[in-house]
Each structure stands twice: as C-alpha cells, then as structure tokens.
Amino acid sequence: MECLGRVVFDVPERASFEWAISSKTSEFGTFENFIQHFDNGTGKGHLQLETEELRTVFAVYGPVTRELSDEFFAFRAMENEALLRNSVNSLNAQKEKEERFRHNPPGPNTMANIAADIAKTEKNIADLKAGQYRKVVDLGRPHSMAFRHDQRRGGVSYLRGAIILGQHLVAFESMLRGGDIPQFEEPTEAQWQVAENALRKLISQLKPRALYEIPKDRGFCLPFAFLGDDGTYGNKISSSFRLADSPAVIYTLSVAAIPGGGASETTLLNATGRSSTGLLSHLPEDTTVKQRLGPRPSKIGSLTAEQGGIVVEAKRPGQPAREGYHVYTGYAGWAGSQILPTIEVVMESAARASYPKLTKDAPPYEQARPRLDALLKSIRLRRTTPPMPELVGIQ
Q1: Domain boundary among 129, 148, 165
Q2: Beta carbons of 66 and 58 less than 8 angstroms apart
Q3: Which of 34, 164, 183, 186 has its CA 20 to 30 A from that of 211?
Q4: pTM higher than 0.70, yes or no?
Q5: 234 and 376: one domain?
C-alpha cells in the first residue's frame, strides 16, 4: 500500500513501485520550473498546498548527492556574489561616465541623473554586503535553508528554500497570499515576518516518509515525505509512478481540494476529450485508432467517476506494429470537501521514439488494463487519528 495526498491505494504484490522524482533540477534553473518526473523524462507531477498566508509548491529530488545539495544550499551565496560583481562593474562604469561628462555635460540634468544612479547602485552594494538581498530566513530545522526572493513575479513576492529529509531533498517556493499586500507592491517588513512565520510552521510539519509508510496523522503524503496539517489546507497534488517490471506504463494520480472552491467541472470533459482524440485533430503519420474507450461511467473506489481514452496502433518500418494508449478516469469531488476531493487517474504508455532512454515498450492495453482496474478499485481516503474534521462525530 502507498499514499498520496489524503488517499491510499494498493500496490501489486511482488511489484517494485517507483515514484516519478528526478535526481537533477530543471535546465531552467535551480528554483525554476519545479519538476516531478523520472530521469528518462517520463511522468509528471505538481505538489501544491495552500494556507491562509502562503501558496507553496514543492518538488522532491533524490537520492541526495553532494552536487544536488550544493546546488540548493550554495544558491543564494553564488547568486549574490554574481550580483555584487555586476553591481561593482556597473558602479565603476557610472563613475567613469560621471568623470567623462563632468566638464561638458550633454544636458542640464545629466550630472544629477548620473549622481542618482551612483547613489542607488552604492546603496544596492551596501545592502548586498549587509545580507539584505535574498535575506536569509532561519527555518529552525537542520539541513534546511530559505530566503526572500526579491525578484517579484506576476506582481507578487515569494519565499524559496529547501530541506534534506533522509535520502531526499524537498525544495519549495511559497507565494505570499496576504490579502492586505497590494499587487505589484513590495511587502512591508511586518508582512514579510508574517509570511516567514507561516513558512516556519509549514516546514516544521514536514518529515521524511519511507516508501509504503502510511502515517496515521492528518496531513498529506508526498513522494518520500509527509506534511501534517489540521485537515483544512487547500491542496492540488499529483505525481506519476510506475512499476519496475513495466517502466513504459506511466500512472499519474491527482487529488485536489480547495477550501471554498467548487467541485471539478472538467472530469466529464476530460473523459470525453481523451476518447475523442483524432476526431478533430490529426494523429501522427502511420498511426491509426484501434479502440475508443468511452466516455463511460466508471468507479474510483466506491465513487462514481467518468472514464475516457484511446488505444492507437503505430506502424514502424521493418518492425511489428506497436500499441499505445491513454486512459483517463476522474471523480469530480464535492465543493470544498477534504474527504471527497477531486480524484483523477491517468494511465498512459510511453514510446521509446519520444523517450530514448526507455529500454522496452509498454505492453498492449489489454495486458495493462487489469492493473489500472485494480488501482482504481483500491483508492480510498486514508484513515487518521484524530479523524478528519468533516468526520468528527461520525466515525
């Protein structure tokens, strides 16, 4: 048995289960475009939790190496050193410009503008040397780091950091959510402090979790980690996984519950869309539809769901035809409920033509389907002590 979010599911006996986590960060940067996929490129995932003060996205990497650890824990110092070098070079250029125009300024405000630029750059350098840029946040946990991300994105501010939990590293980026922080304005020091305290509380609830370990506390299972809560945090959590004997069959489980939000209205549309592939768009060359699956009623555990998908056959010169498939099953959930969240499951085949690191093709759909059926049947809410708030007085 394994768990994700607030649900658990069964794992086939004698099958080696593997979460889609990467051993390396994104090519776009250490804290950019957090990724959850296998090193061969297959799989996907998104780990997001919401509290009143923060919206936090997590990424799990591992196993931890010195290189991976240094990339995160030396990130702030290296970025600040590079910024300091650039700022000093800029200051020198500004002073040379000031000297060049001192006796013959091209305009009446030239010298005043240059002086203002110099003063601003000197202050930035002083702030850098004083540790005020990407200001450190002490999380009070060993093997952890965090800082204020001064480069605002979309008009909002962020905190970034990472923590090592056993053999894995969990990175995170938290968006400040305070309703009293105007968009496109810098948070006040007091607002930063509120956010930092909220982050300390959040990370204090994070702990390592072994594969197949099912916690009893309220909270969220993540790949190789667990984050406790009071049963109310908003969440959008998804992660792919595979079974080692069939690495080209990728399963993605997604769960979501947003307090005050509505039930998903897209599960039926998703099921219909998957089964309609190729009707309004072109399939790849030498690929034909072998079977359309639904849209049709289905079950996730005891919950009524929708299912749709497609099975195709691709012909390769000099090789046997290869079957590919994508099957979606979704339960819409109840508005604002933590115990009846939106649940979505995708089973799809990965092709070696798209993922060259794969060493074998996926089995035909009819061979893969029993495992999907067993997975869907086994998904249920993880029991906790104390019970979830919606179940208090019922269980």
Answers
A1: 129
A2: no
A3: 34
A4: yes
A5: yes
pLDDT in tens, 70-102: 999 999 988 888 888 998 999 899 889 888 888
Beta bridge partners of 156: 153
Rounded to 5°, angle at Cα 389 from 387 and 391:
60
Q: Phi first, then psi: give them for residue 375, nearest 5 degrees.
A: -60, -50
Any domain includes 217: no
353: phi then psi, degrees, rounded to nearest 5? -65, -30
Residue 188: C-alpha distances to residues 138, 148, 157, 339, 395 (Å): 19, 13, 11, 37, 45
Query: In the chain, how many domains are there?
Result: 2
Average pLDDT estimate for 321-348? 92
Domain boundary pick from 87, 107, 129: 129
For the record, the structure tokens of 339 come out as 């115990």
Domain contains 201: no
Q: What range defines the domain where residue 357 resides?
A: 2-21+230-391
Report the alpha-carbon distance of residue 294 to residue 276 in Å, rounded: 9
